[in-house]
Cell shape determining protein MreD
Amino acid sequence: MAGWQFIRLQIIYPLILLVLFFVDGNLMSSFGSFLLHPPVHIIPMLTLIWLFYGVQFEIADHLPFYFYVVGIGVLFDIYYTEILGTYTVAFLAATILMQKLRPYFDERIMSGLLLLLLGLLTYLLVTYVAGSIINIANLSLLPFIIKDVLPTAFLNLVIAALAYYPSWSLFQRLT
């Protein structure tokens, strides 16, 4: 990898991650009445999808990846819950799982989406367990899976599938 490409990657990857953090917040703020309308809750997780692309396309090897993961987790904690740790641990657990399972998957889109699904499930499970521990989760496990996990996973897998090849192309140009 040429030096200028490495610098571009070091600038563009965290910049897009930060922009997606704000887009996530803006989507929830603008479309919250639609996305969180009972009986289902749909949570767009563009930042987790971007972290997944970093793992899937092996960008994490060229960057201080876990520094970005912890940083975005702390930003999520401050912005959404004001309780440090919940989203930081969720992002770390999801990305570590995806990183550990990555050698068993190839770069095809269906393999990648399965890897993302495992990361999403880990993220949602960690946030659910944390919410249960601090007594803010008001659903039992089965309704949580049906009303929150399934719609959220569907939306995020569709978004990831639509952006998979454009992201792959971007990373090919940057590395």
Residues 83 and 102 are 30 Å apart (CA to CA). The chain is about 75% helix and 0% strand.
